[in-house]
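Much of our argument rests on the idea that a fold can be written as discrete symbols. The amino acid sequence and the backbone structure tokens for this protein are reproduced below:

___
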Amino acid sequence: SRPAAELPVKRNKAIGVVETRVPEWFPWIPTEEEILKLKVVYLRVACLDRGLTVSGTKADLQQRLLSWATVQDRHRVKERLSGLKELLEASKSSDQQDVVDAVESYDVDALTSKRRALTKNEKRSKHRDAKSNRGILGLVDESYFNTSALGGHDIDGDFGEDDDEEVDMGTVDKASSISKLSQSFNAPSSIFSNREVREMYVESKAADQAGDRMRAKSILKELRKATPHDMRVVRRLARLEQEDGNTFKAREILLEGLSDQPSNAHLLHGLGQLERTAGNDQSAKNYYRRAIENNRWFPNAYHALGTLEHTHGNIRAALSVIKDGLKHCPRNHRLYHALGDVYLDASMLNLAEEAYLTGLQHGPEWSKCFFYTSLSYVSYAEGHVKDCRALLRQSLEVNGGMHAQGVIALAQLEESEGNIQEARMAYRDATMRYEKKRRRRSPISIRDSTHSPVSRSTDSEIKYSPSYSGDKWVNVFKSWARMEEIHGTYETAHIVLSKAIKFFPNNVSLLIQWANLQASNGDIERARLLYEAACHLVGGRSTHSYQVFAEFEMRMKNFDVAKSILERGAKLVRKSTDTTVRNSGLAHLYHALGVCEYKLGDSDRAEISFEDALRVTGSEEEDSALRSLILYSMARLEYQRKEYLIAQHCIGLSLKENLLPCGNHLIWAMWYMIAEKMGNDHLAARCKEQALMRWKDEQGGAMTDLSRLLSGRKFRERESGSANLPGRTGAAMKDMFRQTPWHQKVCSSGESLDKTWHQGAKLWSL
């Protein structure tokens, strides 16, 4: 019978069983036959009493309750078997007949009844209706029975690839379920009950959304001990570390979990996300493919791989991956959204609209704003600006207007149409809603206002709750500040950025944008202070802040100061445990340091710095653009030394490694100067001709560069049979795809696709 301490005290009115109790004959740990006798209302009560999820069909409730009973019986069997062992050991000193009687009195059938029940249920599930939305429940861990929906999306983040709790339950791999069942039987007993585990998981997510990241991490670490086989906890903990900039720690957590479960798709997907963030796109693709191979019903891996191929311009590969994902996860709304994005960039508007509408039907309520926003892109591409604007406004009606992507899209649409005041109002109204969500009055101001009806809280008394993980609203403020810099004044842009810092005080890119604004306005000291704050905040986790700060000082002709900044950044990064930052980041710092050394007249030290930069640069194809820049600088250095033969060798290698077919005008101009010094008039004339031709091509900006890349792909397809763009183009093309149709009108399109190369080469002219 049910223990007295386990009797429910309070019922859940949401399921309509306020006064209902299970029948008296129903035991606390029931058999399969006893579970099948209960009606739905009693099944819900039984699940509620045991801390299980009460949603689902009758078959779901029966399966969930049977699985729980099996796990509980495992503990009881373990205890009884230990008692049996003691009886057998006692046989050495007692009468043989007494032991036989004791063993015969032991109910062996009761020990195996639950195992037989589970086996029968497994056979029965083969003939169960295939249209069930939940499928077979695999025993991952005792905490698995408590993974109900964890609340709504109060403030939307991004429709990205990190939503690991999303699993397509329409189809589940039976072999995977059996493997997880074996892990559950062999797992040690947890020190926490099912209800406690569920409460801890909900509490960790609530702490994360409230901005209390330390508490969220602490709870997740406790959950890691309580549920050692629940890799969702590992994935979430690693994500929090990654968002805090602790990339090495995040990778360490994932690899530790992977050593326990080497085929876990969640962990492989998480490692892929880490590599993608670090810029190692090829490694990310490999992890995504491994995740798909180990779990064909995990939609996040398909989504991540498909969108990555899309951003690299490999439309055919992206479509193949996403359609394969929909074949295994036919009800996953995020895959339909990604499919629509691919069709939209391919100008297949009817197919894009069909994909978005299908995803809108399958998606939860909070996801509708993303589909309305994407449908607005289709309307704009068809020339229906009014319909586009109406859909964007409709997207802001979902989730109380807390849709950052929709806000940016609507404001930039108005900006592209010349309605600057309308765009400004869209930004202002949205940020006011966001501020209301984040505002938290201090106890002092609340107490004062209760004593004095005329008192008012000043801005200094207003406190804001910390931002939660994945908060994308910083992009709204950055987009607004960009618009004010172009169409407003320095004062309006300054006000926007100063307000944004109150919400995101630890955002490094925001500090750099604010510093750039001060520098362009001539406030050198304030700009220097903000650059220094960004470097202090980032420590050795990134090199971008040091590089931007050093370039600022180089523009001021303070090469000594710039050199000290670069050396300080290189020293901190070398101590970093993250090899990704050490390699790619150090290469950029060493390159800038080499230019500084040359400007200071020390060509030998400049040569050493360039060689160090080349040494730490990766050998993959995606690193070839950086190698091209370093080799170009080495050619310039050797030219200044009058070592023209070595300079020609370096410039030739730079041309070969360059992102764009046939290079750019700076490379050909450098080669022209070298050939002229070597007395090769014919080569000099050809190089000059190519330099002028490339210069004219580059006046068209990134779109002209894209045309050159596509032309190079046709040649590549004829030569090697591969239609994919080379791996070196991936990082450069990320800003070309998955953008709003009016993006080119709003954001400058005059920059080259290989803008990182040109920014590095411009250091020579500072």
Summary: The beta strands are 439-441, 462-464. Residues 29 and 683 are 89 Å apart (CA to CA). The two ends are 84 Å apart (CA to CA). The longest helix spans residues 58-90.
